Fold these 2 entries.
Entry 1:
Amino acid sequence: MNHLEKAKKLFTSGYNCAQSVFGAFDDITKIPLETSLKLASSFGGGMGGLRSTCGAVTGMFMVIGCVCGYNTTENHSEKVEHYAKVRKLAEEFQNKNKSLQCRELLSSLSENLKQNPSIRTKEYYKVRPCLKFVLDAVEILDKELSKFE
């Protein structure tokens, strides 16, 4: 199953945007799916329902951190290079979707947005554009990660 299919399956099974993106790349991050889902669980709803940075975006950042993040303070240029990659991913997502912010991405639903997660029903999936954001994040990541192959 490719990353797009896996992310779609995760999201339509009820996982949040961050879990769906991060979990879809467990083959790349080498983090077991159960652990990936727990690790990303706090980032749904724009970070715990705060409607801040979109969970698909934070999931994308977590994957790129696993692949090419830094883990030492001895080489400042690694940090600079990594932040540049993060900003590039963010820019691509923003170019496609006009925002990185959950509340703005879901502005058509703003009066119905709550901090607590909604129950996933057929109606939820009909009105929420979140799956598009998840798939956009996965496509952006797949393109970026293909440069490392």
Entry 2:
Amino acid sequence: MLKKYPNGIVSTLYICFRSKSRIVHNGFFEYLFQSQAYYKELEKITQEGNRNHGLLNMNINDFFNIKIILPEYEVQNNVYNVLSKIDKKIELEKLKQTQYKNLKKGLMQQLLTGKVKVNV
């Protein structure tokens, strides 16, 4: 999903679409597209290209005919809220980990060069 920018440029190799339906929660679809259930459906319709470059080819009609479970909008919204909160928590934990790594690096430089004395 294009979330960080209002507009973007995409290669013609990709299909771009958006939902105009009020029964679809875009955030829910963001997580759905990352799910194993969705990938299992994609596997049924994809073929690897002749050049074996890792890109998967599919018929556009097959793509739009993939069967997905679409719960009511309120359920979609709840799923999105739960998963996005977990993602935010993961990002905070990653930030903490980076800060601790930087702290350790700085302390190692000071401790191992003798710039700071350690009382034992």
